[in-house]
Write a structure and sequence with these properties.
Blueprint lengths: L2 H8 L1 H26 L7 H12 L15 H10 L4
Helix pairs in contact: 1-2, 2-3
């Protein structure tokens, strides 16, 4: 066993960091492919990154939170803020 594997075996956090770096490398490669396929457009790197992330890890992408209706207390507070004193 080489020393890098020995360290990862003794320290699970090192192994987890390595796995995360592998995932980031995979996302970056796919985002680069999108960039190349689209003719290397400027200003779209975040879009390419997020698209690659969604494609590779769709289970990790959460849906936007739906806004809850305001409670009665919120309505009273909002009304009080609009009073002319």
């Amino acid at each position: 066993m080489n020393s890098a594997n020995s360290i990862a075996h003794r320290h699970p956090a090192v192994s987890a960091v390595g796995a995360h770096l592998d995932e980031l490398t995979e996302i970056a490669a796919l985002a680069q492919r999108y960039y190349e396929e689209e003719g290397r457009p400027d200003g779209r790197s975040l879009e390419h990154w997020l698209r690659a992330e969604r494609e590779l890890h769709p289970h990790r992408i959460s849906q936007p939170a739906q806004e809850e209706p305001p409670s009665e207390a919120d309505s009273e507070t909002e009304e009080a803020m609009h009073l002319d004193l």
